[in-house]
Design brief:
It contains 29 helices and no strands. The two termini are about 35 Å apart. About 55% of the residues are buried. The protein has about 700 residues and is mostly helical.
């Protein structure tokens, strides 16, 4: 057993002290100014400790990852869906695929409760729940030929609970894809800079894919330099385009963007992974990680003060203007992806297990990518917490609450205890070259203002508007990479479901099947998106309120499957690793579901909201956000649909958890009755490091593998 040397002990002791210092300042500060750098210190110190010790313990002691075992990418390599992919490229793909709107938007909205509750959940949640889920799902899916989450549930839990998991997972997937697409449309509409820059990532990615596959196989460093150089050129050129005669060409209406997004999703879903999906996600990761690293450095250099309260009054009252509901359970539901996300389990059992070279890489790709996403969430929370709280609430409160003028907004926000003058509101909009920042709900504009605040402290105030629009474009790129991978995963899920009825669909690279299922998945989320763009209260807007809850319900399915597999594979004593997060997630999410369905507060409960609007219709009144009697009827319909859908999804998840518990109890009592659908062992012929940097032993192994065997 290897013992730690003095140097290692000193380094990790210092890392622990940095994290502890950050937590101490955040927790003990009472009334004095607190630098955002302490939040960054607490996060980075905690992530490092979690990855080095907890993730390594799970990978090697609990899962017992086997570097000699061939993965599905190696055994089933067909160049379409199964393809051994360099760990660095796959890390980029996986991170880009899981990092959608959630880590950018959720923490911004949760800042309504103060910066401390969100910080605690984002960091603790990812270390003990989110990253664990992603890594364990990736491991078990890799052991099962890259099976989807729903299909693993069907095979390991049984047809009843498995069917509930399949239906719930696919329905939630369509909702998530529709919401992601809507955020992209809102970000890119009338934005020639963003549209041009993001469009250019597609031909750049195709070039990178052919470079690695045909021109210079294995030259990841070379293609990275080429890709990053072209990406930076595209970003700069985007601003030139926006200020040139070409601006009109790339200024697209929302309806046009819907058509392009659906077409892109379909093409990305059916092309070989090496051609577009993996290189494009890898490329976008440079921009994502680069921006977040620069933000962290900006915080360290500028040392901005956290201006939001540690815990606001809205946390206890539950009547916040940004979203209604108390701290428990809604701050956890709102933050979602930055700490724990069911969507990630679909990627971890979708594209990634079909591309991973070695089992030993699940720690870096599964656990490590989720820590990277959590760092994005922390930086989003920092950005929301360093701006003037009055501006924060003016930007995130709906127009029905604060009005449409800076005078009225100032008066209302001051009444909430966060004073800001009309002149300050007008100046904030002028600084970023926007007509108004009032009621810019959804979180993205708030994040962009925070980003511009941090960067302009370092580069000068004259670039504030540039950084604001850069951040808006950055968010759109962030989310688009989750949409293309998500569409492909939706195709896998539908193929798995149909494969239970018609066997050829089980071959996920069967061309008629992949084209048909890709078209169906794109048509489903595309329909909701199309209606949502044309009807402000319809389509995906109708389903938006169930986004957070459905995502967390899906995480409960993933954790239930993981816990069942730990028990059935002889790891009963380690079942708490996923069992405890499952119990927490189920408690939080089912509580939130119950409140959203049955709460007597019309701002929280769907059915109560339906009752209030129906009574108003009977009295001939029009209530906001409706502007006409037709809108009133639409709100009644939406509230009914959301309430019923939330109840049905919650019921399906209860069925899955109950059936998983039954299977676990049966296995403990009579292990002989249990069967595992794990693929048989095949020895691997691939030599690849487990982490980003090869160890000395891995370098020697690689040299031995290519050395001549005789003279």
């Amino acid at each position: 057993m290897r013992t730690a040397n003095v140097r290692t002990i000193v380094i990790w002791t210092l890392v622990a002290l940095v994290g502890a210092a950050g937590w101490s300042v955040l927790a003990l500060a009472r009334g004095e100014d607190v630098s955002a750098a302490w939040m960054v210190a607490a996060a980075l110190g905690s992530y490092a400790i979690g990855y080095r010790f907890y993730a390594k313990f799970i990978a090697h002691r609990v899962l017992k990852v086997d570097g000699t075992r061939a993965t599905p990418a190696e055994r089933l390599d067909n160049g379409i869906d199964f393809h051994p992919t360099d760990r660095r490229v796959l890390l980029g793909h996986h991170f880009a695929a899981i990092a959608g709107a959630g880590p950018l938007v959720g923490p911004v909205l949760a800042a309504q409760m103060g910066y401390l509750p969100g910080t605690i959940w984002i960091i603790a949640g990812v270390i003990f729940a989110g990253a664990v889920q992603d890594m364990v799902v990736l491991f078990f899916s890799t052991r099962r030929d890259g099976r989807s989450l729903g299909q693993m549930a069907r095979e390991e839990i049984g047809p009843f609970g498995g069917a509930a998991a399949l239906i719930a997972a696919f329905a939630i997937m369509i909702i998530l894809l529709g919401v992601l697409a809507l955020v992209i449309v809102n970000a890119l509409a009338a934005s020639p800079w963003g549209t041009f820059s993001i469009a250019m990532t597609i031909p750049i990615a195709l070039l990178m894919g052919f470079y690695l596959r045909v021109l210079r196989p294995g030259r990841v460093a070379e293609v990275s330099l080429v890709g990053v150089g072209l990406l930076l050129l595209a970003l700069v050129a985007g601003r030139w385009v926006a200020e040139s005669s070409w601006a009109d060409t790339f200024t697209l209406a929302p309806a046009t963007l819907v058509v392009w997004l659906v077409a892109y999703g379909f093409i990305a879903s059916i092309l070989p992974v090496w051609m577009l999906l993996a290189p494009r996600d890898y490329l976008s990761t440079f921009m994502k990680i680069g921006t977040i690293v620069l933000l962290a450095l900006g915080v360290v250099v500028a040392l901005p003060t956290l201006r939001m309260d540690a815990v606001t009054d809205f946390a206890s009252r539950g009547d916040g203007p940004v979203f209604a509901g108390s701290l428990f359970p809604f701050v956890f539901i709102t933050i979602a992806c930055g700490a724990l996300s069911g969507f990630h389990s679909l990627i971890s059992s979708g594209t990634t297990p079909k591309m991973i070279q070695k089992e030993t890489q699940v720690r870096m790709i599964g656990y490590g990518s989720m820590l990277m996403e959590s760092s994005v969430a922390i930086m989003a929370l920092v950005a929301a917490s360093i701006i003037d709280p009055g501006l924060y609430f003016a930007m995130n409160a709906p127009a029905g609450a604060i009005g449409t003028t800076v005078e009225n907004a100032s008066q209302v926000v001051t009444g909430w205890g966060y004073s800001i003058s009309p002149a300050e509101l007008a100046q904030a909009a002028k600084n970023v070259e926007e007509a108004s920042l009032l009621s810019r709900t959804g979180g993205a504009p708030t994040l962009a203002v925070g980003v511009s605040e941090i960067f302009s402290e370092v580069t000068g105030g004259s670039l504030r508007a540039f950084w604001y629009h850069f951040a808006i474009m950055f968010e759109a790129l962030f989310i688009l990479t989750a949409l293309d991978a998500g569409t492909r995963v939706g195709r896998f899920m539908l193929q798995d479901m149909l494969g239970n009825v018609y066997r050829p669909f089980r071959n996920i690279s069967w061309k008629p099947g992949l084209v048909l299922t890709s078209a169906v998945v794109c048509a489903l989320w595309g329909y909701f998106l199309w209606v949502g763009v044309h009807e402000p209260l319809g389509g995906i807007n109708q389903l938006f309120p169930v986004f957070g809850i459905s995502n967390q319900l899906l995480a409960a399915v993933a954790l239930a499957v993981c816990t069942t597999l730990l028990v059935k594979s002889g790891r009963l004593k380690w079942a708490w690793i996923t069992g405890v997060p499952l119990a927490w997630d189920a408690t939080v999410t089912l509580t939130a579901s119950f409140q959203k369905v049955f709460s007597s507060d019309p701002k929280v409960g769907f059915f109560k909201q339906r009752s209030v609007f129906q009574d108003a219709i009977d009295d001939g009144k029009v209530l906001p956000p409706a502007k006409s009697m037709d809108d009133m009827h639409t709100v009644v319909t939406n509230s009914t649909v959301d309430g019923v859908l939330t109840a049905v999804l919650a019921l399906l998840i209860v069925v899955v958890i109950a059936d998983a518990l039954r299977v676990c109890v049966r296995h403990v009592r009579r292990p002989a009755l249990s069967t595992l659908s794990e693929a048989p062992y095949v020895e691997s012929k691939i030599h690849a490091p487990a982490g980003l940097i090869p160890t000395r032993a891995e370098r020697e192994e690689a040299r031995d593998a290519v050395a001549p065997t005789g003279v």
